[in-house]
Amino acid sequence: MTLKILSIGSALLTFAFAMHGFITDSNIFLGWMMLSLAMMILLMGIEEIQKDKKWIGYISFGASILISISAFQEILRL
């Protein structure tokens, strides 16, 4: 239940950052949007591992790490 709430919260946060960037045509929150997206993918991967879909869970975990690295690079650039 907690993972589902965190997943929905991170999805809403990602959507809010994306809509802000789309409406204002600004990339100031791009790193934070990518970080919340990475968190959402990480939580989805944890849910998949709990459902015994280990392969998809591990791929999601790896994608989350790669997106987090890109997000931190973007945040530190600004």
Automatic annotation (TrEMBL):
InterPro entries: DUF3953
Transmembrane segments: 28-46, 55-76
Keyword tags: Membrane, Transmembrane, Transmembrane helix
The protein, known as: DUF3953 domain-containing protein
